[in-house]
């Protein structure tokens, strides 16, 4: 089997596993269902992934890497802090909507506890990025004088609340635009007459 064929098979397995995990949760998913979804044998799945946990963690890591890459791309040429924060918030919310199945998986069964350390590192990194944006906005006078760490926690928690509503089966409570407007209104400096 050539490398291109191997990678194609691996991607089919990952794609099928995402659907199976989203539909059945971590507990209800199994390698047989994943193999059926990928149109390969169960033995073939085990050639690529030694167990369901490894497959799940690979999926999770792939999802985090993709969101990081999108965020990096969105922020790449932005200098102005308010614009950077708007891009960060919008990218995160749009990505969560596009990958609702992965969001739902995090709240089902034992999915939340799996890969907890990896998730914590990822979330700390994202919160730190928000803090850096806020710190720059405060330093340049665009944002009001506030504690960048506390502001980052509030923004981050607001975004996580958006995701939690999706995990509970609710429609998203706000649009990316509404979230950006509300959060920026609390940060933008207003000079009093």
UniProtKB/TrEMBL annotation:
Give the source's domain of life in one word.
Bacteria
Q: Which InterPro entries match?
A: Homeodomain-like_sf (IPR009057), HTH-type_TetR-like_transc_reg (IPR050109), HTH_TetR (IPR001647), Tet_transcr_reg_TetR-rel_C_sf (IPR036271)
Domain (HTH tetR-type) spans 7-67
Entry annotated with the keyword DNA-binding:
yes
Gene3D superfamilies found in the cross-reference section: Homeodomain-like, Tetracycline Repressor, domain 2
Give the keywords, sorted: DNA-binding
- The entry's DNA-binding region: 30-49
Where is the signal peptide, in residue numbers?
none
Asked whether the keyword Endoplasmic reticulum is assigned, the reply is: no
PANTHER family from the entry? HTH-TYPE TRANSCRIPTIONAL REPRESSOR SCO4008, TRANSCRIPTIONAL REPRESSOR
* Protein name in UniProt: TetR/AcrR family transcriptional regulator
Source organism phylogeny: Bacteria, Pseudomonadati, Thermodesulfobacteriota, Desulfuromonadia, Geobacterales
């Amino acid at each position: 089997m050539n490398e291109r064929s191997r990678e194609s098979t691996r991607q089919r397995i990952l794609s099928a596993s995402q659907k199976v995990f989203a539909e059945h949760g971590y507990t209800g998913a199994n390698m047989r269902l994943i193999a059926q979804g990928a149109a390969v044998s169960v033995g073939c799945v085990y050639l690529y992934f030694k167990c369901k946990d490894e497959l799940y963690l690979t999926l999770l890591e792939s999802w985090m890497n993709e969101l990081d890459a999108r965020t990096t791309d969105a922020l790449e040429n932005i200098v102005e802090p308010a614009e950077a924060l708007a891009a960060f918030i919008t990218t995160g919310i749009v990505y969560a909507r596009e990958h609702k199945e992965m969001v739902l998986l995090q709240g089902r069964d034992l999915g939340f506890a799996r890969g907890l350390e990896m998730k914590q590192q990822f979330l700390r990194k994202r919160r730190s990025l928000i803090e850096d944006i806020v710190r720059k906005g405060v330093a340049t006078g665009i944002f009001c004088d506030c504690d960048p760490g506390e502001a980052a926690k509030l923004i981050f928690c607001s975004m996580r609340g958006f995701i939690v509503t999706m995990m509970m089966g609710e429609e998203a409570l706000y649009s990316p635009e509404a979230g950006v407007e509300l959060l920026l209104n609390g940060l933008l400096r207003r000079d009093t007459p």
